[in-house]
């Protein structure tokens, strides 16, 4: 019988899942930045003509949006990490050098894609908290 070894196919699957998750994370960050920019535009143009409740609602939606994208990014990062872990295990078994420590990039976890995209969501959430605080306590935002 001509049986194929399933391990190389599983390695290809883990590698393609890793690439998919990285691409998905980049796309999600772009969507988040677009949505945040749109909400910021809505706050900017509504500041003179709309009620405070409208701006508070937009700020709350911005906070919610930041939390949702933070969770999505976190889950995507967990999937990505699992795929890389399995690909490393399979690379050792199969003798591949793609995920071996010999060819590993410098270990700079601060600039890793998962950390950066989570940071973008956290900074966005803090930004919306500041906007919300300025709407709730107008005296804190200064004169004008």
Would you summarize the structure shown here?
By secondary structure, this protein is mainly alpha-helical. Helix content is 75%, strand content 0%.
Molecular structure report:
The protein is mainly alpha-helical. The chain has one domain. The protein contains 3 helices and no strands. Helix 1 packs antiparallel against helix 2 and helix 1 runs parallel beside helix 3. The chain is rod-shaped, with a radius of gyration of 22 Å.
Q: Please give the alpha-carbon distance between the first and last residues.
A: 82 Å
Largest sheet: none
Mean pLDDT: 81
Question: Structurally, how many domains make up the residues?
Answer: 1
- Rg over alpha carbons: 22 Å
* SSE class: mainly alpha
Written as H for each helix and E for each strand, in order along the chain, the element string is HHH
Strand content: under 5%
Poorly predicted parts: none
Principal-axis shape: rod-shaped
Helix content: over 70%
Annotation, overall tally of beta strands: 0
Helix tally equals 3
SSE topology sketch:
Layout: H1 6-46, H2 52-94, H3 113-136
Helix pairs in contact: 1-2, 1-3, 2-3
Question: Top keywords for this entry?
Answer:
144 residues; mainly alpha; 75% helix; 0% strand; rod-shaped
